[in-house]
Structures are given as C-alpha cells and as structure tokens.
Amino acid sequence: MGSVDNSKYAHINTAVFDFVLPDSSVLDVGCWTGDLGRKLVDAKKCTVDGVDVYPEVLKEAKSSGYRNTYCFNLNDPVNELVIDTKYDFIIFADVLEHILQPGEIVDFFKDRLKENGKIIVSLPNIAFILYRLKHLFGNFDYKDVGVMDSTHLRFYTLKTMNKFFEERGLRVVSRVCYNEVAPQHSFLQILKHLWPTLFTLQFVFLLETVNGR
C-alpha cells in the first residue's frame, strides 16, 4: 500500500465533537490520524478506539491517545473484523460516502453500541446550490476534497440520508446544518437555516436505534 497524504482529512468537525458527551467510550470509524480523538480525550476525558485502513495513520492516532486501533478496509467483508467492545458513541465522520456497502457497515457497528448508545454521522450534501447549478449544466467534476471528492462512491441529499437511516433502524435525535466556509461566504450561515437542503454543505446527525434493533 502506497504512502498517503496525512494532511488531506486532518480536521475536526466541531458538530461531531459537540455531540459526544464527556467521559464516554467512543469508536471513531475512519479515524485517520486521530485529531478528533485527541480532542475528545483531552477536552472530554473520553476513551477512544479507532478504525482505519492505513497503518501509518493509525500509528499517529495511537500516539494521539487512542486506546485501541483496528487496521481494516471498510470495503472488505465486515465479518472479518473482530471488535468485542461496546461503545457509548460510534462515529462515522465523512466516512459512509467512501464505502461500497455503507448499510452493511452501519449494521455491523450498530451491534457494538451499549444500551442507549448513539451513532454520529456526517455526510456531504450533493444538493447544495453550487452543485445543483453545476450539474444542471452537465458539469460533474471531481475534486481532491469536499463534496465532490474523487474518492466518494456515494452521494446523498437530505432526503436520501433520512431514508438510509430509516432503513437501518435508526432515528434522528438531532441534526446540525454544518458549513465550514471561508469568512467571505459567511452569508451561508444564515441561509442554511432558511433553506437547509439548498444552502448546507454537510449534515451532521445524532442517531439512536429504534426499538433496540
């Protein structure tokens, strides 16, 4: 496996961080170098485990305070991954859009929740106004990062996100319209509340299981 650019996904989604309660046990699926886990350990005294495909980024996550790390390709058969621990929170931050069979992955990890445990998911919104306009004129151009990241295998609107959760036996407890934008685009912070499906770059969800499923 070749080397990776460790800086590409090195950021913390503050909405994801805010959903996690202090002193919780957390599984960070697609943890990358562990920036999120480091902050959860330092600021909220959480116990954090991580899953990622690259040994080199897991080494960094371990040095960031992750208790256990699991090297696994989420596009491989998930029954080959052994995780016996139960968690208060399982996080999929910018992960499910990169997976061939995201439903199977969510179903597998959902069984690793403690009673009353929660799942946190962040997903990019393909229906953001910029991409609606580009697609209207036949432009479906991939980028290195962002909603049109060239490594994305799935694309979601808010409607299909909600359908996906319902099919997985998950109920939305809370939702955040998340725009990590430059200061000159701060007007989006206002517009996202008026028309979230059109002016939100990413949705972040706190989810619970329905009837213990």
UniProtKB/TrEMBL annotation:
Organism: candidate division WWE3 bacterium
Domain of life: Bacteria
Protein name, entry field: Class I SAM-dependent methyltransferase
Pfam families named in the record: Methyltransf_23
A GO BP entry: methylation
Keywords, sorted A to Z: Methyltransferase, Transferase
GO molecular function: methyltransferase activity
